[in-house]
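Ticket #4471: structure export looks truncated?
Reporter: QA, pipeline team
Priority: medium

Steps to reproduce: submit the single chain below to the structure queue and open the exported record.
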Amino acid sequence: MRHALILPLAVWLSMILVVAGSAAAQTMSPPTIQFPQGSTPGAAPTFGAPPSTTGVISQPTFGAPSGAGMTPINPYTGGAAPFDPYSSSGPAAYQFWGIQPPSNNAGVLGQPPVSPYAATTPLAPPPSGTNQPAVLFPDGLWGDSQLDMSQSLRFIQDLRLRATYVAGGKDNTDLGITDIETAVTFTWPNFLTTGQPLFISPAFALHLWDGPADIPADLPPNAYSAYLDFQWASDPQLQVGAELGFRVGAYTDFNTLNSDSLRLQGLALGTARLTPSCTVKLGVVYLDRNDIKLLPAGGVLWTPTPQVRFDFFFPQPKLAAYLTTVGRYEVWWYLAGEYGGGAWTIERTDGSTDRIDINDIRVMGGFEWTGPQGLTGFVEAGFVFKREVVYVVDPSDTFNPGDTWTVRAGIAF
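Actual output as written to the record:
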């Protein structure tokens, strides 16, 4: 009887000890922390874009409001930037070259410059998940993302057409001007193994002059500009770099063609990328005009957002912002300034030869757009002042046309 009672008691005692031991273990053991798959303790949490309808997580991208990806990256800006040397958009450094870095893409602001040199485009920040460009102040800004040149270059970059009209007047010293220009840009990839392209742009322009009248000074009815541009820039992702340009051309009415008709012009800028949205440029531009040979050049390019671009660049500043999208065309508005004019050799009415400068300052506002297949265009209007026509052989004939207005339009494809 005693043995019959001992066995059940032993079983119940064992069960009680097991349950008690289990409860004690749960009370004394610390809770278990589970990390998400693929993470490790101590690692910073990561955040991605919300999953798509297919369940695949995609990284968010930032760029121009529309059309991004339709065209390659502009090697001169490192960001979305179509190039139309005839528009007043595009990197200010190139605003000095009527043929500027070729149009390659999404976002009109990267377009080429206006004559006598011209252009600008907003730098879209690198997509999330990519490295940031090198900077001077590394406060959270770092990286060395590489530019995929294979997507941004083709041998024939684009063909550009532009027309400019500067209104004349009824005064004897008034001067009306009509300029019609065309250019094409070719690309030499990996120039001298630098990893960056050389842009080669032959161009031709016809200049029609109306005036002056009934004063000793005179001008032929037309003149011509035929020139060849070379442009190169270091990798835009570098912390410190350079932008170089060289132009050789003949500027004459073709009745007078001599050594003075040949002009050599150049652009040399050093660049420093302070932050991903701010770049400083400093250098000189050699105009080779009769009155002014050399000008300092420089300023700050600031793109606080992909939709706004401030190009505080002397002597051709430009402020631009995204406006809207019409169909497949992205439209920007802008305000710009430039040192206009040029220099030519001419034949006077008495048969003598002379050299002249036509100098002025232009302030303009306009719209520019980019569309499928890199098709870009612009239209602008503005005010022209500080005008002068300088004669070298007979300086007494120098005169000052009155202030006036101008319109300009262009297309690149």
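Status: closed, not a bug. The export was complete when the record was re-opened. Leaving a note from the reviewer for reference: The chain has one domain: 92-412.
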